[in-house]
Amino acid sequence: xxxAAGEGGSLVHQAVAAIRNHIRDQDLKVGDNxxxxxxxxxxxxxxxxxxxxxxxxxxxxRVLDVxxxxxxxxxxxxxxxxxxxxxxxxxxxxxxxxxxxxxRRTVELRIAALAAERRTDAEAKRIVELADxxxxxxxxxxxxxxxxxxxxxxxxxxxxxQLFRQMVRSYAPLMEVAVPQAWGTRQTRDQQVxxxxxxRALAKAIADRDPAAAVAAMEAHFDASIQxxxxxxxxx
Length: 236
What we know:
- With 236 residues, this protein is mainly α.
- 75% of the residues lie in helices and 2% in strands.
- The chain has a two-stranded antiparallel ribbon.
- It is elongated and about 70 Å long.
């Protein structure tokens, strides 16, 4: 047993590593059951309290799916974990918003191309519907923001790349701040119409299975948004 907090922490880390190694060594997949805390406690020679903390830590990271009344299962990848880490990094000035935007721009250009190549008819229909819905919600900023976030997620879904899907999901909390900020700089009706038209052009390019046009539309969208955000910074 650990006699100090540091030793206790070390035991928990060892327990976490043991659980993750078990998942790899047994080639477990999402939804597969794991042995209980008592199994690992006996195997490692640690207390149930140590294993409970290790299970809790992995559940918080979505590595494990733990619910009352049933055994722990292997969890599915979850972009919300990345979102929490990213939001923390930005709010504590470890990463700048501009750095996030630069990565987003690079990633989402590739996502747009893949979406145009791989989208299903149902996915194309949803993307077009969301772009049209943005125009209908132009006077309702909270709704417009919600739809904008959903549009980017729908495009990522259409890429059929699980990591891209989760990466875009991780940007959602930052988008919920950035979209209203950027929209607030579009003071004239012409600016607003142009922005909405850009989203529709992006959706159409994906629906038309035109990767080059989709990349060009996404690039124009990001460049315009960056200019809008910079303008908001200067006037704020």
